[in-house]
Amino acid sequence: MFTLFKLKKFFKKEYIRNKGDEFSKMSISLIGRSISASATLKLNEIAAILRDKGEPVIHLGGGEPKSKAPLDALVAAAGIINSGEVRYTPADGIPALKQAIIRYTEDFYNRKVAPENVIASSGAKQAIMVALQAILNPQEEVIFPAPYWVSYPEMAKMIGAVPVPCLAEDGSFYPRLSDIERLVTSYTKCVIINSPNNPTGAMYSEQFIAEIVDFCERKGLYLIMDDIYHRLIFDGRKPINCYNYAKDLTENSKLIVINGVSKQYAMTGFRIGWAVANKKLIEVMTNIQSHQTSGPSVIMQKAAVGALNGVQSSVESLRLTLENNRNVMMERLNAFNGVRAYKPDGAFYCFADFSYYNKDSIKLANFLIEKVRVVTVPGVEFGLEGFLRLSTCGSIKDITEGIERIKWALDPDSPNELYIGLRKLVRDWL
Ligand SMILES: Cc1ncc(COP(=O)(O)O)c(C=O)c1O
Questions:
Q1: What number does the ligand 1 atom closest to the CA of 194 have?
Q2: To test the ligand 1 pocket, which listed residue (38, 121, 125) has its Cβ within 8 A of the most ligand atoms?
Q3: Which domains does the chain have, with CATH numbers?
Q4: Cα torsion for 367, 150, 240, 173, to the nearest 10°?
């Protein structure tokens, strides 16, 4: 269903779009020109503007849970604010947070690491960015499965490196090692694996993780495991521990494990993530971070310590809510003739094929906002045209009503009128 050709065309089109005259007039750098705005953040803004105008928006575009941050996090943050002693921290994070991350790594990865193997950053996003800055030279290539998280290509481009998205040859969301293997060149430096995946919710098999760990070790490639959703998985699955398949667990290991509090603890606004890797790499990442942002805010680090060391029940409760929301969303999407939905194994999203209605996902997403005030994210932003990403983070009401509105807007068999609250919509486009 997808081709490499389409993907290359997309990147070329994007590059040409970004080469506009106004950039030349302002002497904007080539790298600056090549970076596009985050699609998801842009959509959050559109949703907020419409809501401010009193529009009955349903936001199925978001990537953050609606639940509250754990009380332990809030109490810890309040404690440091009340003390009035809010200062700089070490560039790689406060010792208490590093200790909490070390314990997390022991609990979930059965691996003992030293404080020098850990860096805390302002979000998993920054941890990934400083890791890429530490390992990639301009022109070097970073491979990641497609569909992919919107930031991977832009992060690579910010370094002058080359993003290489990898579509599974069989058209599924589950790449095989051979799919990755055929993209490796002498410029390849790194592979990024995100499982469960944003946007598809696909959790890769233990066999695939074992193979990719082994392959990267044999080829001397860095492997970034973006495990930000690893506890938010469904149908009785268990998180997969990449270290189980590593032969080299010494300080020469090129395995980098990324995690954070944003998703699992519903703490997206706290901006704390981390990386666990070999000591030398962490030292280099720390040097980079020290000149970039310094250490993350001490208030947020304390909150993260609170969450990591505190009562853990909120994580399971979020996981159960997401699984239930996933089930409801799949049921609704499956009742939709023109839509092909793929059951997510975890994370916050359903990535569904809407190409029957419109092959241009940006046009389709704009149409849905305009006609029925439902926000979705166009698949092309994740490297796959014809799809929409629908978030399962909201309430059941958001999901059912959002999909009902989408169905009404697209399906010619739906009744001609739809009520949104007291507002009557009449369909005049089908
Ligand atoms: C796959 C993936 N990795 C990393 C991140 C970044 O997380 P954080 O909020 O910790 O920066 C996100 C956030 O959307 C994500 O989806």
A1: 1
A2: 125
A3: 35-64+314-426 (3.90.1150.10), 71-309 (3.40.640.10)
A4: 50
